[in-house]
Specification:
Helices cover 52% and strands 2% of the residues. It has helices at residues 13-22, 28-37, 39-42, 55-71, 75-85, 88-91, 110-123, 126-135, 143-164, 170-177, 192-198, 234-245, and strands at 203-205, 210-212. Residues 2-7, 94-99, 102-108 and 218-239 have low confidence and may be disordered.
Length: 247
């Protein structure tokens, strides 16, 4: 992935910064492979009860690894990582942020934000997905990775909507794609947020106040899924897509 390989450079904040910075130019699968190669080193920095190495490095590494797995559409593996391979002594320090005010949370709560993100993606809680991505106190070295996943998540659901719906209320589209649209402000003139959709091929039908998605020619298939939701039958596939999106 870069000229400096895991075998030649020990895991450190500097090395992790380089890996995350370089990753923007490479497929997500290569980023996952690179971070996976470092896990054997990371495991030496902690036990079930104590941290023996750099706490900030462990927080940065494991939270980045989990998001990289999400970017590569490996949600089950990301959940397994969070449940069974996060450092227990760090996990014990984290807690569920019931007020979801990630902007005020301390760095040690980064793993809580990651776990909330994983739960939100798993349960298809779209508003929470976007809230965590946009408001959690991510480290500076993770900004590129987080922005890349935000774009990936938004694009994949834009494609799903384009295939699953022939018309859709703006507020429902906004929920899936992470746009802030005031239902009371939607009138004959689309808002700036709606223009983000109409400039990508969707049409605004003013009489009914609905968006008309333009079907995409092809949809990138999830990992391990060779036919997409619903298999090859068109009606079953449509039902599968709508069921996948949920409400």
């Amino acid at each position: 992935m870069s000229s400096t390989t895991p075998n030649s450079a020990p895991l450190s904040i500097a090395q992790l910064t380089q890996v995350l910075s370089d990753s923007a130019a490479y497929p997500s699968s290569e980023l996952v492979d690179t971070l996976a190669d470092y896990e054997a080193q990371a495991c030496l920095f902690f036990t079930d009860k104590i941290i023996k190495g750099d706490e900030e490095l462990l927080l940065a590494y494991y939270s980045s690894y989990a998001v990289a797995l999400l970017l590569n559409d490996e949600l089950p593996e990301a959940r397994y990582l969070a449940c069974y391979r996060f450092p227990p002594s760090l996990t014990d320090k984290s807690h569920v942020l019931t007020n979801k005010d990630y902007r005020l949370s301390e760095t040690k709560h980064l793993l809580s934000a990651v776990k909330d993100l994983l739960r939100a993606v798993w349960s298809r809680d779209y508003p929470l997905v976007y809230h965590v991505l946009q408001h959690a106190k991510w480290l500076d070295i993770q900004r590129t990775l987080i922005e890349r996943y935000l774009v990936h998540f938004r694009k994949s659901h834009f494609q799903l909507l384009s295939r699953a719906y022939r018309s859709i209320p703006p507020t429902l589209a906004a929920k899936y794609i992470g746009l802030e649209i005031d239902a009371n402000a939607v009138d004959e003139a689309p808002s700036t947020q709606l223009e983000q959709l109409t400039t990508r091929g969707w049409k605004w039908h003013a009489p009914n106040g609905l968006l008309l998605p333009t079907p995409v020619a092809a949809l990138e298939k999830p990992r391990g899924d060779t036919a997409g939701p619903g298999g090859g039958d068109p009606m079953a596939r449509l039902v599968g897509l709508v069921g996948f999106l949920g409400e």
